[in-house]
């Protein structure tokens, strides 16, 4: 209920994670269709980059203005910080404050004068401005670091390397907000080099009790986790896509023309395969390098046909092997019979 600097930083991190989720799923999904030349219905979705910019912009962002207040000379208080926010962010559509000159919130009694409100991706959050400046400073005095570095205990000495007289830096230590911003930037850079999978956990009720399902709470989580946009994009597009070579390699046994070897281009082989299976044209599209399948049931059908065909092939292989084994034994017995018969005739 009472949100201060710590919750503001946590929500900033959540916004960045939501942004990378949007970029790596919704945005990338739509861009792939454009890359592959696939016709489809474009789905509009909310990109929370505007909220991230409100917080982390180097000139007009909330963190930048907080650092500016912490570093400037003169009397600095939480109220002067809020006043600065009201001047710079008053017209921003996701920033709300009673003290701003925006007439929308002058009579909003749910918003105290010492607070500001941000309309996050997950909903509106009100922050108490009290303590923002002190918590952002978070300065560890240099003389304290130097005293710890002089300790005889090796662990304590190792924890305060900045206290080493040979490494004294006269520059002002970075603020808590700037350190966290740099840490989040490193995390985002790391995630963008990976191929992440997402597990979305949904609480059925606030008490986390069994057999209790709060429909309103679940619907709220589904909305702010971005699941609705994801489902809409998936349903408007194609549920499955695969490069032509692996697709042909996996399903080539379903068509006599492609089995056991297809000598032409992989795309032509996939076209022959799908025509042979009589899959409706609206269920798939050919991209520049991939085959796109719209409905999961089409994929399930292909997998079922493949499973059945593999069983048939296994039966065929077993049948041929048993035939070969029996014929080999028969030929051996026949040769043996001829030898025995020839010896007997000569003896007779």
TrEMBL record:
Residues 1-307 form the Myosin motor domain. GO terms for molecular function: actin filament binding; ATP binding; calmodulin binding; microfilament motor activity. The keyword ATP-binding applies. It holds the Pfam family Myosin_head. It comes from the Eukaryota. Residues 184-206 are annotated as: Actin-binding. Keywords: Actin-binding, ATP-binding, Calmodulin-binding, Motor protein, Myosin, Nucleotide-binding, Repeat. GO terms for biological process: actin filament organization; actin filament-based movement; endocytosis. InterPro entries: Kinesin_motor_dom_sf (IPR036961), Myosin_head_motor_dom-like (IPR001609), P-loop_NTPase (IPR027417). Coiled coil: none annotated. The keyword ATP-binding applies. Signal peptide: none annotated. Gene3D superfamilies: 1.20.5.4820, 1.20.58.530, Kinesin motor domain. Belongs to the TRAFAC class myosin-kinesin ATPase superfamily. Myosin family. This is MYO1B protein. It comes from Oreocharis arfaki (tit berrypecker).
